Amino acid sequence: MRTFLTRSHPFNINMTLVSNDPSLWPLINSTRFSSYFIVASFAAVVYDWTLTFGQEFELIWRRRWSLMSIMYLAVRYAVMPYGITIMLASLPSVSLTDTVSSTAYFALNWITLSIDTVLCAITITRLYAMYQRSRKMLVFLIVIAASFAIVGGVTSGN
Fold first, then answer.
1. Residues 18-63 pLDDT 10s
2. Hey, is 2 helix, strand or coil?
3. Which of these, 123, 55, 111, lies nearest to 78 by C-alpha position?
4. Tell me: the pLDDT tens digits for 127-144?
């Protein structure tokens, strides 16, 4: 049995692997199934965007812009490069070099952080409005959001 494995980065799932070991077949099948699922999910998101773009154009683009509409558009359109990067990185037929893999890993982390931050701001703003602009509720929500951000940063940092 010959096994060669090169993996330089945690995001680099396209690795050189030559093996006759049948114990790896379930891993290969699950990776292939996962890549099919990712491509199908991306196709569903693009289909949804094409169906709802007319409504978005009327309700968002033609109206006076506010901070909420900018945050909505940021979240909605930041997902597109994220999805493309995930889809390309997960396909076994797309080979990523170490530099491209590191860049994709870095970009995905920053896009995820940006989307999470904007979604948190949208949620805080909506809850603040639901509680009749209570300062106590605003402070509580900001403290909770900051604590989650700190815990997430500490646990994900290497």
1. 667 888 888 878 888 887 888 888 889 889 989 999 999 998 899 9
2. coil
3. 111
4. 999 999 999 999 999 999
For the full predicted model, state whether its pTM sits above 0.70.
no
Beta-sheet pairing, 16-18 with 4-6: antiparallel
Distance CA(35)–CA(129), nearest Å, equals 41
Extract the tokens encoding 45: 């998101």
Q: Cα(first)–Cα(last) distance of the chain, in Å?
A: 35
Measured from the Cβ of residue 45, the count of other Cβ atoms closer than 10 Å reads 13
Chain Cα centroid distance, residue 124: 20
Residues 75, 118 contacting (CB under 8 angstroms): yes
User: Residue 89's CB: how many other CB atoms inside 10 A?
Assistant: 20
Cα 71 off chain centre by: 16
135's tokens: 């300062």
Residue ranges of alpha helices (H) inside 57-134 are 67-90, 98-130
Cβ-based neighbours of 84, under 8 Å, separated by 6 or more: 42
